[in-house]
Amino acid sequence: MSEDTRTIVAKVRKPHGIKGGLKVQIYDLDLGDFEKLPKLFVNQKSQWMTVQIEGIEGTESSPILYLKNFKTRNQAEELRECFLYADNASLPDLDEDEFFIEDLIGNDVYNKNMKRIGSISDIISNSAHDIFVIKSNTSQELLVPFVNEWVLEVNIDKNYIVINEAEKF
């Protein structure tokens, strides 16, 4: 299975406790969908490793994963800041207005007059809504909430996003 058939579904933030728990940030999925994934993949030190979820604790906003073969804090520490990937075929279908984060990163961002503002360099997920981090044409970072008032169009096929912009952009 190649990297092209995998999607980032979470990022390990840090170990939790002494029994190998991992505090993670889940992207694009509900906790219930995440629990149904048969296996995950981690690229650690340029080597792909397959891992399986053994248990999940916590809440949607603060999940803690337990993986098979990761039983100590030291083992969990090795995965700090690593991304967790899932096989695309095992992911649930998205609604028309839903997107995977990695499909948005790198997209060009335009204002409603189709003047290029910059590109998406990162996405911050929080409990209210996602926030686009845009590296502007002037190398500034702009933060734009991913809500209808700000995001007018998302075109994944053509790799662009159109936003309303504040006067100073």
Topology at a glance:
Blueprint: E1 6-16, E2 21-26, H1 31-35, E3 40-44, E4 47-51, E5 53-59, E6 62-67, H2 73-77, E7 83-87, H3 101-104, E8 108-111, E9 116-124, E10 131-136, E11 141-145, E12 151-155, E13 160-163
Parallel strand pairs: 8-13
Antiparallel strand pairs: 1-2, 1-7, 2-6, 3-4, 3-7, 5-6, 8-9, 9-10, 10-11, 12-13
**CATH homologous superfamily label of the largest domain:** RimM
Global mean pLDDT: 87
Largest sheet: 7 strands, antiparallel
**What is the count of β-strands?**
13
How many domains? The number is 2
Question: Could you name the ranges where pLDDT drops below 50 across 5 or more consecutive residues?
Answer: none
Main CATH class of the largest domain:
Mainly Beta
CATH topology of the largest domain: Elongation Factor Tu (Ef-tu), domain 3
Give the structural class. mainly beta
Protein model, in words:
This protein is mainly β. It has two domains: 3-89, Elongation Factor Tu (Ef-tu), domain 3; 101-163, Roll (SH3 type barrels), CATH 2.30.30.240. The chain has three helices and 13 strands. The protein has helices at 31-35, 73-77, 101-104, and strands at 6-16, 21-26, 40-44, 47-51, 53-59, 62-67, 83-87, 108-111, 116-124, 131-136, 141-145, 151-155, 160-163. Strand 5 (53-59) and strand 6 (62-67) form a beta hairpin. The longest helix has 5 residues, at 31-35. The chain is elongated. The model has no long low-confidence stretch (mean pLDDT 87).
